[in-house]
Amino acid sequence: MRVAERMLRPVARLLVGKLSATVAITILKEAYIAEATRKMRREQPGRRITKSALALWTGLDTRAISQLETRKRPEVMPAHELCPEAAVLHAWNTEARYRDRKTKQPKDLGVYGRGVSLQTLVSRVAGRNVTSTTVLDKLAQNGNLKLVPGDNVRLINPNYVPTTDEEQKMLEATADSIGRHMETVAHNMESDKAKGDWVQNEIGSARIPAEDLPELRKAMTSLLNEQGKAADKAIKQAQASGKRVSNQSVAVGYYYWEEEPED
């Protein structure tokens, strides 16, 4: 449990406010099924993989496994599944009750009140556990809406964009890096020792004075950049001149880490 928490909590930190826990949990369940299937095929070749066996290996019931195996992933995630904020914006921008009949534009909504208001919209779409004030603060901060006279709110941008283009690129690169690191760990746990482990190493200390961190960061950045150039050169020298059936992908990753102070 402690190991799982240490691995999954940083993932939650990257996803919170960008993807709902419901979607993330569904993806994790699908990954459990896929990995259990792969593991059984490897350890028990030729043996039929049953729903009962998958239930034993994953802890999921057979009905849930069947539903997840037949689930079709949409090319575009529906707004109501992405996160509550996106669901609110989508309903406000597309449903007839929230659009002006003449201009066809989203109406200004009262923050509170029955009928057509932000309060009832949030309650219906995001659930009663989420207050309209919480959604108002988040979407105003994100530039999606603003307060207007009469205690109303106006929709400015119907698109919920939890990350900038630069942040999205960073998340995609990070996902690849995390995935590759975990692949190395899994390989080293499962592989035949006679074939050799993949390199996995970490060097650190818990005795660095806070005032020395800036200088250490600078030194580590320089060192890792130089090692990165050397690794890049070695990998390029090993590249085949053209496409071959036997070609495989390899990668070496570097990162610097330090403990951040609690908020």
Q: Give the strand content.
A: under 5%
Mean pLDDT rating: 89
Instruction: State the total count of DSSP E strands.
Output: 3
Structural class: mainly alpha
Our Rg estimate from Cα atoms comes to: 25 Å
Instruction: Give the N-terminus to C-terminus distance in angstroms.
Output: 25 Å
Note the overall shape.
Answer: extended
Q: Helix count, per DSSP?
A: 10
Query: Can you tell me the residue ranges where pLDDT is under 50 for at least 5 consecutive residues?
Result: none
Order of helices and strands: HHHHHHEHHEEHH
List keywords for this structure.
extended, 3 strands, 4% strand, 263 residues, 10 helices, mainly alpha, 53% helix
Explained architecture:
The chain has 263 residues and is mainly alpha-helical. It has 10 helices and 3 strands; from the N terminus they run H-H-H-H-H-H-E-H-H-E-E-H-H. Strand 2 and strand 3 form a beta hairpin.
Question: What layout of secondary structure does this protein have?
Answer:
Elements: H1 2-15, H2 21-43, H3 51-58, H4 62-70, H5 79-82, H6 84-94, E1 109-110, H7 118-125, H8 132-141, E2 145-148, E3 152-155, H9 165-190, H10 213-238
Antiparallel strand pairs: 1-3, 2-3
